[in-house]
Amino acid sequence: MKWLLEQKIERYKKALMKMGWFTEKMLIRTIESMETRQPALVRQVVEDDDVLDAMEIELREEATILLGLYTPTGFNLRFLVGTLEVANILEKIGDRVRKMAQLLLNFYREQPVGVDPNIVRMAKSVALLFKETLGVVADMRSETAFEVCMKDSEIDEMFQDIRSELASLLREKPNQSERILCLLEIAQNLEETADLCTNIVESVLFAVSGTNYKCFRDQMRLFKRGEGVLFDDTD
User: Fold this and answer.
1) How confident is the model at residue 233 (pLDDT cuts 50, 70, 90)?
2) Which end of the chain is more exposed for a tag (fewer CB within 10 A), N or C?
3) pTM to 2 decimals?
């Protein structure tokens, strides 16, 4: 029975990675559209988000079957619980990418200029961070997980710079407010995508070590449980 569970989990992991790569492709298409101003690319991204939602449901159903039929323990149990959360986070990243795609479609219709190069640069950095995050999931290794948390600080700094730049531009050119606010929202979704990458590696660390870590102030820190709130027996 144990060997059968191992086979099922390996199959499940391959499906999870397929979802991750699909999400990465959505992000890459969005960045390519920023650079080339091709609406067709982001239209495809909007359509792909429905596929990503279906993938998340499939993984959830498969994990439920594995947990119910095989009653896994140890690493296998933590892996299934942790990667269920990973699938949910991938779906959330897909939502952020879809929002960016929709914003870009409106941007192309309304604005004759291109996307701010700083935002494109930030988007490429987020795509690289996401790629490293998928590597953490594939290898189930904790070392790189800590690096993802630290690199998120670089994305945060980029976002702060862009936000300050756009805020100044908004004061100087209020007649361009629609364009500026659209760019700001795109940058915000990129920053949130990077934050979600740290949530993914937190789940991997739980699966590997059995302990809870949180990326706090750009450092991965062990979450130390206190006396508790939800399961405190005292009334």
Assistant:
1) low
2) C
3) 0.93
